[in-house]
Amino acid sequence: MSRHSLHYAFKLFVLLLCILSGGSTARAVCLSPPGDLDANLSANVGDVQCSILMNLWSLEGQINPVPTCVKVPGSPSIVADHNCDGVLNIADTLLAINFALKVALEPTLDANTNQCVDACETDSDSDGTFDLLDCAPLNPNISGAAAELCNGYDDDCDGVVDEFSTPTTHASCSDNSVCSGTELCDGLAAGLPLMITEIMADPLAVSDANGEWFEIYNGTGTSININGWTIQTGQGQTHVIDAGGALFVPPASNIVLGRQKDSTLNGGVRVNYQYSGITLDNASDSVILKNSGGAEMDRVDFGGVTGIAVVAGATAALISPELNNNVGASWATSTAVFGAGDKGTPVSPNFDVMPSFCLPGTPLVCVDGNVCTDDSCDAIAGCQFTNNIEPCDDEDPCTINDTCGGGDCAGSAVVCDDSNPCTNDSCVGGVCQFVNNTLPCDDGDVCTLIDTCAGGSCAGANPPNCDDTNPCTLDFCDQSNPGALPNGCVNDGAPLDGTSCDDGDACTDVDVCDGGGCLAGGPLFCDDGNDCTADSCDSGTGCVFDGAPLSGSPCDDGDLCTLSDICDGSGGCDPGTPVDCDDGNNCTDEQCNSGLCEYTDNTESCDDSDPCTENDVCGNGSCAGTPIDCDDGDVCTNDQCVAGLCEYTNNTEPCDDGDACTENDICDSGNCAGTQLDCDDSNECTDDQCVAGLCENIDNVAACDDGDPCTENDVCGNGSCAGTPIDCDDGDVCTNDQCVGGLCEYTNNTEPCDDGDACTEND
């Protein structure tokens, strides 16, 4: 990371110091490499900037889209919480800078020096959340060597709660009897949306001023922000929650609110939010939670006659979130030791008071529904059914003396007979029934030709045909009648006098019988009430309604939306000219209703006469289209639509050519280009280049000129040029040898010397 980049990140960091104080209460895990939010395999200034953006996002209530810089898998509010304190704030950004600079964390945060905050190393199942699925290191009954029980916790510390899924068989729930059915292990049921599940009113390890706290559980699948809510006691004390930002209760998890957040002072409790102005009475009191609108969301009354005991040094713990938390029987005193020695389970399930989650099996039902067997259950063999000879009921009411035998029930049939040939005799529902039949029989009457049973008696049918075709006589067969014919038929007119008949004339009305004959009635009234027909009567056909004579005559078709209606010559009334309701607007549908014009807006396609719009459509009675999109994606052109065509004009705006080794980028002729960054350090002994926006000056070993004419074979080394001095030694001790301006000079001297002659002195 360059100093320039760190300087920029630090400026943003200082800005945030003034505005950030809190955020999400989601828990977190360590990243690999530490602090690498953008998943580029290295923690750098980009991850510091991303941490700042996450803090701003949390400050705004985590309701806006998550910053796109977070690329690592998992919940964004979890992976960005570098110190695992359940809050996104400036402390996480400080750690992000540490990770980017590769600086070791403080020993108080990272005792094992693995660049992972120790508080983040409690997520044993590595799902990103410290929850019911994690191992509980402070509980001696839960460890890697423990047996997995059906108790709603990860007893064997394998990172999986086997019973927290679809109810399943589990060895710890079985009573080894097939007669009990299959016992199942079930999980913890969901609680209310937000409820108080644990209260520490009277700590012993520390003072009340430091050690009072209570726990809130969220039984939903969504985080709930309680910032701005009110805590109230039964004494009337209140505190409005102000976390400086969102304070979330994570889904299916807990947070703790207490009088002291420092775990070294509060007895070892991980407090998510520190309140003030609230004290809990050790004898009896209430904890009341109200939302920002003042509505009471939950209330727990404890101590006194409530049945929820206050025990010094131990919490009152809700046995299960599925229970009513304002009933004394739903609470128990915690037995699990935490922190400095008090008892409770802050920010974790109340595993020490939870009941078994075993679901009783459905007992094996050994009832075969047969009264002729004795039913029992053997623990190993299962159901046993033994035949008996007991009295029984074969469920047939038409049998008597029913008795069991061979596993079946049977009785003797009931006898039913009424000696009537026109009934079928049987027993139904224990009662004798005599159902009429239709068998042939003899009724003793000569006026019937075929006799048949009907209604339980014998009746004749098919009498002789006595019809004389006269509608004014009553025809029947009766040999005892004085007027009977030889075949027994009687044709009597008297009974039908005054009844309706037809004299054969279609133009008479209400003809009646008289003495066996038909008397003509009055003339038929022919009027169809139609103004377009001429009405008359024909003796053969009756009333005649002819439209031809009135063809073209004015009439009324009953429609107020037509004018000048006329008869059509066939008895109908032709509609006249429709009322003109056209308003000249293509975006309205016109119609006439009861003589009045109505106009309804439509959504038809249309033309708004603007060539720079498309997909024109009617709406609210007018036509409008969508402006044509002329954006060519080039920042170096100004885009516009003219007369239906897109025009692109080059501009000279500042831009970014994507090359970090150029500067002063600007648009020119539709292209973006900048001036190459000058990396020349004027040293011929370095190779100069720009890499990712930074200048690099690398030492070389090239031939060079050190500017000294009295050296030779000059060459670069360690970024500088140096040569070997020219050798001017002439081998004569009586001359002073030197190089001047690149030339050797020899000057005679008077130094002592040796002429090689032992017979001379003072050479």
Which secondary structure elements does this structure contain, and how are they paired or packed?
Blueprint: H1 3-17, H2 45-59, H3 76-79, H4 90-101, E1 168-169, E2 184-185, E3 195-200, H5 208-211, E4 213-218, E5 224-225, E6 230-233, E7 238-240, E8 248-249, E9 253-258, E10 273-274, E11 284-290, E12 296-303, E13 316-318, E14 331-333, E15 358-359, E16 373-378, E17 382-387, E18 399-405, E19 408-413, E20 423-428, E21 431-436, E22 450-454, E23 457-461, E24 474-477, E25 489-492, E26 508-509, E27 512-514, E28 517-519, E29 522-523, E30 534-538, E31 542-546, E32 562-563, E33 566-567, E34 573-574, E35 577-578, E36 588-593, E37 596-601, E38 613-619, E39 622-627, E40 637-642, E41 645-650, E42 662-668, E43 671-676, E44 686-691, E45 694-699, E46 711-717, E47 720-725, E48 735-740, E49 743-748
Parallel strand pairs: 9-10
Antiparallel strand pairs: 1-2, 2-15, 3-4, 3-13, 4-9, 5-8, 6-7, 6-11, 11-12, 13-14, 16-17, 18-19, 20-21, 22-23, 24-25, 26-29, 27-28, 30-31, 32-35, 33-34, 36-37, 38-39, 40-41, 42-43, 44-45, 46-47, 48-49
Helix pairs in contact: 1-2, 1-4, 2-4
Task: Characterise this structure.
With 763 residues, this protein is mainly beta. Among the domains are: 1-122, no CATH class; 192-348, Sandwich (Immunoglobulin-like), CATH 2.60.40.1260; 373-413, no CATH class; 423-461, no CATH class; 467-473 and 487-518, no CATH class; 571-627, no CATH class; 726-763, no CATH class. Helices cover 7% and strands 30% of the residues. The chain has five helices and 49 strands. The strands form 21 sheets. The protein has a six-stranded mixed sheet, with no helix packed on it. Strands 7-6-11-12 form a four-stranded antiparallel sheet, with no helix packed on it. The protein has a three-stranded antiparallel sheet with strand order 1-2-15, with no helix packed on it. A hairpin with a 2-residue loop joins strand 38 and strand 39. Helix 1 (3-17) packs parallel to helix 2 (45-59). The radius of gyration is 55 Å and the shape is elongated. It starts with a helix and ends in a 15-residue tail after the last strand. Mean pLDDT is 83; it is low at 1-28, 128-133 and 136-141.
